[in-house]
Amino acid sequence: MLKYALKRIVTGLLSIFMVATLTFFLMNLVPGGPFVAEKSISAEAQAALAAKYGLDKPLLQRYVTYMTDLLKGDMGVSLKQRGRTVSDIIFTKFPVSASLAAVAVVISLLIGIPLGCLAAYNRGKIPDNIILVLATCGIAIPSFISSVLLLYSFGMYLPDLFGLDHPILPTVGLSTAANYIMPVTALSIYPTAYITRLMRSSLLDVMGQDYIRTAKAKGLPTSKTIFKHALRNALLPVVTYVGPMLAGLMTGSFVVEKIFTIPGLGKEFVSSITNRDYTMIMGTTIVLATLVITANVIVDILYKIIDPRIKLK
Asked: Phi then psi for 84, rounded to 5 degrees?
């Protein structure tokens, strides 16, 4: 187990290095620069700013300097939010996005797994058909569409319908628990629907295994057979999906944060791209890549805990 974990960690570090390298060079291949849009300053001032931040140096030299500083934990300073370091901006905004994604993950698992089990238990019956229809609709609706629908419904339509002079649910920020309801719902719809279908198909596959048929032959009730013996093995595909789901929720929350005016990392990531804030783009990309890779390493190790029969090599 330890050898496998160390191997996965080394592979993850190599992946982060490759992501950082590709992002750095691709970002600098795009025409323009972070100070070109500032039309209020002269070309001489733009050149002075480029020299101040080292953007006038050869590309390879800048790459070596950046990677060396990164190994020391220095992500540099923001080219647009002058006077603030990239690390300070990221680690100030990251907890907001992380809390949003974490709540969405928990909600998706708590709803998706039981619905999948219920659909498998009632295979071919009315509950199964209803759940499959809802899950299919949930997969087909992107988070930004559901965000707009929720915002319109609870922020405008329903208040007007009931003659209220205020939204039913808060539409801006994350200042209270109620503020989480709409953005978390928008983020959770797709993963909940996907987990439901994944859990259903996985559980039905496990139910066809020999040891489950043996349990049934011994007279065990179907509900006990499913939830005590089959569920643990059926969870493996869901655990596999948790890593990519977390990554998808983190990146998908960027659009949701923009719609609901949430002061998270998504706002900084989007603005850094539009403003050509090179250091901010690099910092957010590396942090998100690290998060995704860490989640996948944890998922791989959890395989062994969930199913001891799996051999890690």
From this structure: -115, 140
